[in-house]
């Protein structure tokens, strides 16, 4: 089963373009350059290569500040017909944003905690509104910021090595980079499921979920075995249990079901930041009827609420720094995350709001 998106996807018509994609997949494993992002023109194609393989091509502010102006230049160039983005190293397209740098800046009150999210979301919007065919080769780990560099473009090409996830609720954040736009537009309630649990999709399942538009073998040397979508047998339960008017109701649905699948999701969600869960649930609810620009404006407000709060720093400590996997969330329960707390997270920042 292939799940259907509710936003339009153009067809990749040209066989020549597919050949370009396969060629670049094979060339993406190694590069000797010291630059963190490579920008080059090859024939009619503008090529963006993220080049931090030891950091799994994690996205930082200098990379964003190089990619954005070049993207706009190629978009306006009558001799550029295709923009392609990929990662080096063979392990990751882009594993996310440079969370540690953002954490340090947020703790110190540095501007990076504002500038990174602002400029990242401006880039996400530029990708989403790009007038040229934009192709992301999501070969390898594609999470968080890497999703923002790919999912809003015309074409997302997955391979057998693709590993997709939006794991932000585990670190006191929320599925940003336009997650409030694309996740609720996936079939049924799968977007809510992916956002709240951080479930990982691999290989062809990324296409079947509607996140990738195409699938190719990275080496084009194996016979691809078509398999059932990994969540196929659970879709009825996902659509039922994650159809709720509140985060608390989802938890009640999972408890009421009591089956192995439901209890596993209950265990997973119970480890997440209660504030992040409620924030994410409302983000997807509201984002379902917003355009991408309004979603990114909303998400910038949420990002700054996370920078002002407790759970993001505690989540990063527990998962990425000390790695004890034992975060102490504040508040510790869903019930303690009041509507007033949530409202303050979604509140306008006035003159500091994101401007697109």
Automatic annotation (TrEMBL):
EC number: 3.1.2.4
Chief location: mitochondrion
Pathway: Amino-acid degradation; L-valine degradation
UniProt-listed GO biological process terms: L-valine catabolic process
Catalytic activity line of the entry: 3-hydroxy-2-methylpropanoyl-CoA + H2O = 3-hydroxy-2-methylpropanoate + CoA + H(+)
Record-level GO cellular component terms: mitochondrion
InterPro entries: ClpP/crotonase-like_dom_sf, ECH_dom, HIBYL-CoA-H
Keywords: Branched-chain amino acid catabolism, Hydrolase, Mitochondrion
Compartment annotation: Mitochondrion
One function term, GO molecular function aspect: 3-hydroxyisobutyryl-CoA hydrolase activity
Pfam families: ECH_2
CDD domains: crotonase-like
Span of domain Enoyl-CoA hydratase/isomerase: 46-221, 226-346
Family recorded in the similarity comment: Belongs to the enoyl-CoA hydratase/isomerase family.
Task performed by this protein: Hydrolyzes 3-hydroxyisobutyryl-CoA (HIBYL-CoA), a saline catabolite. Has high activity toward isobutyryl-CoA. Could be an isobutyryl-CoA dehydrogenase that functions in valine catabolism. Also hydrolyzes 3-hydroxypropanoyl-CoA.
UniProt-recorded name of the protein: 3-hydroxyisobutyryl-CoA hydrolase
